[in-house]
Amino acid sequence: MSSQVNLNATHDPSLSSWVSTANQAGCDFPIQNLPFAVFRRKGSDESFRGGVAIGDQVVDLAAVKEADLFSGVASDAVAACAQPQLNEFMAMGKTAWSELRKALSEALSEGSAQQNALSACLVAMSDVEYALPCNIGDYTDFYTSIHHATSVGKKFRPDNPLLPNYKWVPIGYHGRSSSIEISGSSFKRPKGQTKAPTATEPSFGPCKRLDYELEVGIFVGKGNVLGEPISIDNAEDHVFGLCLFNDWSARDIQGWEYQPLGPFLSKSFASTISPWIVTTEALAPYRTAWTRDENDPQPMDYLESAHNRESGAYDIQLQVLLETEKMRAEKQAPTQLSQSNFNDSYWTVNQMVAHHTVNGCNLRAGDMFGSGTQSGPNPEEAGSMLELSNAGSEPITLPNGEQRTFLEDGDNVIMKGWCEKPGAARIGFGFVEALVLPAE
After folding, report:
1. Is the pLDDT score of 5 beyond 80?
2. What confidence score (pLDDT) does residue 395 get?
3. What is the DSSP secondary structure assignment for residue 67, as one 8-state letter?
4. Considering the entire predicted model, what is its pTM?
5. DSSP classification of residue 363
6. CATH 2.30.30.230 location in the chain
7. What would the pLDDT profile of 182-231 be if each residue is shown by its tens digit?
């Protein structure tokens, strides 16, 4: 059984850093977090390279490599992180991830003998820009929120909202990794075929029902050999970390095209991820029990384990904010649309990995899963506008008087995520945002 959920010195809530901003209340990136991204100085022609967040600073891992600050496995890991993408580091496995995390934690701790040397390797977050953290070779989107699946199903199939397979199998489809972009990117409203319920034939034009989907992105670390499934108890050895993920959706295009093979052009025009990958080790204090309603089918053996029951879920708060063009012009703060929690998922990350590979499918370092839209049991926890506006029939009124059923051009959607509880350090994910531009 994986020891990934074991706590160690890096999780100590009393640990503080000589980077003073990391010790401030509400900070997303305290010393107990240490998430990874790929960055360079804004507007420069520098090579992108790996970095680790601490307070409002980025530890430049290429500079750490040049300074030769670490030894052993941590030194090898830093060398892998100095590259423009993190795939090699992710493929090294959890021992390397953990050793580098431990070395960075010790070097960044208050009183560290390495403070002077490491302080020369810091770059202010305000001065950096990000790229995708790795080459995402393959991307699979799951459908793990039963609340979202039921809510959406009721709109399309009132008499049969959940299809019979939902409670037996972690549903997913393969998406386009080529259209995944980093936070801060903008995208053009997609065009495609749509068909109004009363029309006799479809028409072509810009999407009229553009939506966001609040998701968690899950990055594969060490892969598996083709034909060799990953067991549920070994799944955590293969998961590097989690990020925030907005899987944009064209609901009107989707409604016309999704039968019989599922989403296609309604999903492949844009997806956006947050820059920082929070490692599964950093999230260890926020692992929680996973349960299945006793009246529901219980998981098949390959999707079941005591470990998954005890700590398969993640307690991650997820929030969606909207900033309209008018709000920006009038310098108004973005307004919250919803807040939910990843621990309401019907299927766990471990189950996603086990199911994805049970047929022998090989995962590779840098592959990404989307969790599917994360909606909670209550209406205000809906992770999409499709749910919040009841498929467009109940407009959402914003604090400034504007209304929305779906997204309009100029809208900026911001998603945030964090973990917080007494007795543990707050772990933040930063945010992911993207701006909707008019159709071409």
Report:
1. no
2. 97
3. H
4. 0.96
5. P
6. 9-131
7. 999 999 999 999 999 899 999 999 999 999 999 999 999 999 999 999 99
Examine the residue annotation and report whether 355 is marked as an active-site residue of this protein.
no
Which of 139-153, 230-244, 297-311 comes out lowest in average pLDDT? 139-153
Asked if the model's pLDDT at residue 156 lies above 80, the reply is: no
Average pLDDT of 312-323?
98
Greatest pairwise CA separation for the chain in angstroms: 74
List every span in the chain annotated with CATH 3.90.850.10: 139-437
Give CA–CA dist 100/72, Å, rounded: 10
Burial of 189 (0-12, 13-18, 19+ CB in 10 A): buried
Question: What are the C-alpha distances in Å from 106 to residues 36, 81, 119, 286?
Answer: 17, 18, 13, 22
Q: Are 267 and 294 in contact (CB under 8 A)?
A: no
88's enclosing H/E stretch is helix 87-91
Query: How would residue 421 be classed by pLDDT, with cut points 50, 70 and 90?
Result: very high
Strand-pair category, 139-142 with 368-370: parallel
Distance of CA 117 to the CA centre of its chain: 33
Residue 2's pLDDT is 41
Marked catalytic residue, from 11, 148, 238, 355: 148
Q: Which amino acid type is present at position 338? A: S
Compute CA distances 296 → 186, 217, 289, 373, whole Å: 42, 27, 17, 21
Q: Which fold has domain 9-131?
A: SH3 type barrels. (2.30.30)
The rounded distance, in Å, linking the Cα atoms of 429 and 422 is: 18
> Which residues fall within 8 angstroms of residue 32, CB to CB, at 6 or more apart?
10, 11, 12, 13, 15, 282, 424, 425, 427
The 10 Å Cβ neighbour count of residue 191 is 16
What CATH code is assigned to 139-437?
A: 3.90.850.10
Q: How far apart are CA 98 and CA 334, in angstroms?
A: 37
Give the list of residues 6+ apart from residue 115 with CB closer than 8 angstroms, or none. 18, 107
The Cβ of residue 126 has, within 10 Å, a number of other Cβ atoms equal to: 8
Least confident of 261-265, 425-429, 433-437: 261-265
- pLDDT tens for 90-143 read 999 999 999 999 999 999 999 999 999 999 999 999 999 999 999 999 999 999
Q: Which residues contact 306 (CB under 8 A, 6 or more apart)?
A: none
